[in-house]
User: Fold this.
Amino acid sequence: MTGKRRSQWIAGLFVLAVLTYLYAPIIVIVLFSFTTSPRLSMPIEGLTFDWYRSALDNPLILSALTNSLVLALISAVAAGIMGAAFSFGLMRLKRPHVREALIGASLLPAIVPLLVIGISLAVFFRVLGMPQGLINTAIGHLIVCLPFVVLTMNARLETFDFSMLEAARDLGATPVRTFLDITFPLIRPSVVGAALLAAALSLDEFVITWFNIGNQQSVPVLVWGMMRRGVDPSINAIATLLLTLLVGLVICSNLLGRKKRS
Amino acid sequence: MTNAAVEIMGVRKSFGSMTALEDVDLTVADNEFVSLLGASGCGKSTLLRIVAGFEYPTSGKVRVYGEDVTTRPPERRPTNLVFQRGALFPHMNVYDNIAYSLKLKKWSKKRIDDKVEEMLALVRLEHLGGRGPTELSGGQAQRVALARALAGEPKVLLLDEPMSALDLKLRQQMQLELRAIQRRLEATFVFVTHDQTEALVMSDRIAIMNRGRIVQVGTPQDIYRRPANVFVSDFIGQTNLLRGTVQSIQGGVATLDVVGTRLTVATVTGVSVGARAALSIRPEAVRVSRQESLPEGRGVEGRISEIIYLGSSIRVGAVLADGTTVWADLRDEEAEGLAVGDLVKLVWAPAAPTLLLGDNE
Ligand SMILES: Nc1ncnc2c1ncn2[C@@H]1O[C@H](COP(=O)(O)OP(=O)(O)OP(=O)(O)O)[C@@H](O)[C@H]1O
Ligand SMILES: [Mg+2]
Assistant:
């Protein structure tokens, strides 16, 4: 009896330790983004929004934030549309092994090291004579996001009854009408969910961005630069903002994914 | 032909190197209920989808009420298809599903309301207009699919195994309903099934398909009583096939030698003396007799090997000298006193057997 109780205790402690290990850094950052002390020190002296104010007053940070949001938006829209269209095309292929192979090929970039993608892109764009900047970076982000969008869309389309589309045509709908009336309403939650995921991936992408963005800044690149000059407490504020945004996006993405399955 | 609803003329269809349909000809008359019947993979769905416009034939033509529709997309054909699994739109309720084609035709709200109501009454789902497709039973969903396909008043309704997912009881009930609806609307139905009973129950005519070809077209009686070849007789119902060699043909009667016994049967065109042929006799046409003599030309001798109780009848199997088993379906009193091992005569009426040529063995 006591042996059993003790083993339960140990198991509980272990779970707690792992959770602490996972979340402590995040909690510390969120906490320090609200503390008055400019140093990361205990105990906490007082609470303030100053770091948020100074972060949002800093023109560098503002432009980095804008760039990050632009990149996220481009990633969401482009990856959402391209990924959905690609998955749809795949599903219509008659030969199953060709389809499997193409799905595999489209997912591969997800396990290619980001460093490799980042450097390859940088070299590739140099060869093309394209100056570093947001466009190159956006293209890179698309590469990172697309496999995840394709994965999400494939999961949805596995259970998609394509005979519905034939039924619509049969009942008199043109291909365009069929898309507007049937296809799009049915896949919209999954596409939006996948797009939100793409936005989240883009927001905290660092490696590819760093190699391709040139003298511009995105939030992760800017934060990295600031860290090299010493820890500025407004970094905590930026990180917390980013965290909130990401968690929000992922939650929305999951909720949308869940709804369509019911 | 002015009363032809669907004319399928020399239709071939290949998918890459695979030929799904070979030179299919079929004419469906106005108001007719025709079933395409065949085993899985014989090309039934492909043929129906060619009529609906989802596939285009590799060669050949399709006409609907005289109009060549061969290359028209499905949305511009006067046909509607009921899909195997309904294919209802899950984001629309029953009403909107049925109204979909009418909205596309820009009917007035009032007219659509009336039509949807009429359709719901037709399939006996008056109160379910507001339900979502996921809130329907399998049978209800297929009824809605039927109502949706009929709402746009197609000239020809195509049905691809619409009941295959339903259980037997429900299927039998829906078979009768579907038949009644077709009669009431005086509509032309082309129905695909691999279930011979379903085809027999509902159809004016049945087209039997095998490996991409139509092997026989006829009324259910025709096909049951006068199958055109061994494949059809085997496919439709149970049958005894007695294989032998044609000995003589005289006065419309062919004589066959089957395991040393001479059997007679009305001849068919294309039979010649010396040819291999088969005699097909339904089990319910075979009687078991213990008399000494065989009636001339319409009986064989065998030893009872099996007696199976089927409820409404008793099935007796007897083995002939060459090992063929002949089955007879008997009423209780006819089977009385029979036992496994008895030597008996299996006899039938002169008109019972059919002579079949071709694809033996
Ligand atoms: N789009 C396609 N691509 C390649 N082959 C196909 C295609 N559609 C059908 N076939 C092949 O054509 C043949 C006929 O198929 P079809 O679907 O018409 O059969 P069916 O008689 O309806 O069978 P079932 O009773 O199983 O539905 C099959 O061998 C099938 O594999
Ligand atoms: Mg089929």
About this structure: The interface with chain A takes residues 52-54, 73-75, 79-81, 83-85, 87-91, 100-101, 104-105, 148-149, 152 of chain B (CB under 8 Å). The mean pLDDT of chain B is 90.
